[in-house]
Amino acid sequence: MQSHDTDRHPFLQGLSRHRGVPPTVIVIFGASGDLTARKLVPAIYNLGLDNLLPSDFYLIGFGRKAIQDEAFREMTQTDVQKYSRRPLHPEFWEHLSEKVLYHTGDYDQVEAYKALGERIDVIEKNLGRDIQLLFYISTPPTVFKPILENLGASGLAARHAGTALASKIIIEKPFGRDLDSAKGLNQVLRQQFQESQVFRIDHYLGKETVQDLLVQRFSNSIFEPIWNFRYVDCIQITVAEELGVGTRGGYYDQSGALRDMIQNHTMQLLSLVAMEPPVSLSPEDIRDEKVKLLKAIQPVDLRPEGGDVIRAHYTEGLVSGERVPGYTQEQGIPADSFTETYAAIRLFINNWRWQGVPIYLRSGKRMPRRVSEIAVQFKQPPGALFSDTARFDLAPNTMVMQIQPDEGTTLLINSKIPGLETRTQPVKMHFRYSTTFGSNTPEAYERLILDAMGGDGTLFIRGDETETSWGIFTPILDFWQSGGRRGLETYASGSWGPVAADRLLWERKHEWRRPGP
Ligand code: BG6
Q1: What pLDDT score does 306 carry?
Q2: From the DSSP assignment, how many helices (H) and strands (E) are in the chain?
Q3: What is the average per-residue pLDDT within 3-18?
Q4: Which of 261, 264, 327, 406 has most ligand 1 atoms within 8 Å of CB, for mutation?
Q5: Is 260 a pocket residue for ligand 1 (Cβ < 6 Å)?
Q6: Surface-to-core class of residue 147, CB atoms within 10 Å of its CB (0-12 exposed, 13-18 middle, 19+ buried)
Q7: Residue 178: CB within 6 Å of ligand 1?
Q8: Which ligand 1 atom minimizes the distance to the CA of 204?
Q9: Is 443 in the pocket of ligand 1 (CB under 6 A)?
Q10: pLDDT tens digits along 56-71
Q11: Which residue, by CA, sits nearest to atom 15 of ligand 1?
C-alpha cells in the first residue's frame, strides 16, 4: 500500500508542491459529460494527490442539467472511484470536494455567466485575493461559439486581463471539421482571448511517450545524424484501436477516422518525430518547428488508382475471440453510411531532411488490438555480403517507438544465430518504461491540465498549427464527400485493415509492419 493511503496526506499539511501555479478556478463546461467523468475529474483528483494543485483551488461544473453542489460532489466522487488510476483517499477527497461546486446554466444565456462571475467574486472576497479562471470547454462543438461569445459578453474572459491571473481557456477537440470551420473557430476565440490564453487540446501530447519523443531525439547524439533521407527508408505511424464506435455513433458518423484520429493525433506524432531541432524548449520555438514541418507536407495525390489515400470501414468479424457487428450495424449508424473507420495515407515532406522518404500513416477502429507506434525504418546496408536468403534472414533496421500500450522503444537489428555455421536472424533491443520506471505514470490529462493552469502551451496546438493541418486534410475530406461511397473499402473487424492499403507501400517495396515490439 502506498504511503498516502496510510499517512495523513501532505496536501492536508499544507505541503503543496505545485510549480508556480496561481490560485485557480477550473470551470468545466459539459460537466455531466463522459470526458469529465472519465478523464477530467480523475486527472484533477490525481494532481491533488500529488500535491500539484494550488492551495487555493476550486472546480466548478457548468451545465444545463440542474444539479446541486452536493449531488455534483457525489457524482465526481463516483468518477474518481470508477476511473482514477489511484484509489480514492477519503480524507483527501473530503478536503478537495469542499472546493467542488456546480453552476446550472444555459450555454447561450449570458445571465448564467454573469451569475457565475458573482459566485467567483464571492470566492475571491472570502480568499482575500484574486484568482485565475481556467475554462475547460468539453461540450459538443455546436455550443463552442455561444460559450465563447458569452464568456466575452459577461466579462469572464477579460477578468484580470493583462496580469498573470488573466483567464485561460482549454478547448477540446474536434477543433473544427475542416479548414474553414477551424478558421472560423479561431476567429471567435481571438475576439475574446489572446493566443497565449488559448490551450487547444490534443491529448496525445500529454502522453508520457509522446513527450519522450523530443527527449529521445534531441538529448541523444546517435540518432540525429541518421534521422534523414540518406538513412531512413520510410516512416510508418500506426494508431490502431480494438474498440468500435461504441455508443458514440452519432458523433463518429459525422467525423470518421481522418478527422477523429489522423488530422490530430497521428499528425502530432509525425510532427514530433520529423521536425527540425527547435532553437530552445520554449513553447513557441517548439511549435514553430511543428508548423514548419506541416507546411512542408506536399498535397496528397487523390486519384483513386495509384493515389495516396485509402479509406474503409469495418464489417462484422472477430476481435479478441468475440464476434462484433459491422460499422453500419452499430447503434446510431445509418445503413448507407460511407464514413471511414480506417484511413491510410502516404505523405511526402518537401524539405531538405525528408526529401523522397514516404511517410505512411494509418489509423483504424476494430483492429486486432490497441497499439500506437512510430516505426522509423532504415535503408539496407550497401553491398551484398548477406544476400543468400536461405541462410540469412535479415530485416531492415527499424526503431520502433511504442506509444501505447507496453510503452517503450525497440531497435531491430540483425544478429548471428550462435552455432558453427553463419546464419542470421533479426533481434530486438528493448527499452520498456514499465521495467525501468515502474508503471504508475500520470495520465495525459493530468499533465495537460497542470500545464494550462501554469500557462505553458508547449503541449497544446497553436492556432496556425491546427489550420495548417486542416489545410492538408480538407481536400481529402472534400474529395471523399463528393465521391460518396466510391473508393470506400471494407475490412473485417479484427484484421489490420483493407488489402487495398498494402498497395500504398508495395509501390516502393515496403510493407506494413505487424505492430508491436
Ligand atoms: C479520441 C478519439 O480523440 O481518441 C477516439 O475521439 C479514440 O475515437 C481516442 O478512441 C483514442 O485515445 P487513446 O488515448 O485511447 O489512444
Answers
A1: 86
A2: 17, 17
A3: 49
A4: 261
A5: yes
A6: buried
A7: no
A8: 14
A9: no
A10: 999 999 999 999 999 9
A11: 241
Give the up-direction half-sphere exposure of residue 268: CA atoms within 13 A in the CB hemisphere: 24
For position 2, what pLDDT does the model report? Answer: 42
Average model confidence (pLDDT) across the chain: 94
Residue 383: phi and psi, rounded to 5, are: 85, 170
289 lines ligand 1 (CB under 6 A): no
Give residue-wise pLDDT tens across range 272-322: 999 999 999 999 999 999 999 999 999 999 987 889 999 999 999 999 999
Nearest CA to ligand 1 atom 6: 260
pLDDT higher than 70, residue 14: no
340 CB within 6 A, ligand 1: no
Tell whether pTM > 0.85: yes
**pLDDT exceeds cutoff 80 at 187:** yes
Number of Cα atoms under 13 Å in the Cβ half of residue 287: 21
> Is residue 249 within 8 Å of 333, Cβ to Cβ?
yes
Residue with CA nearest ligand 1 atom 9? 261
Domains of the chain with CATH codes: 6-172 (3.40.50.720), 205-389+462-506 (3.30.360.10)
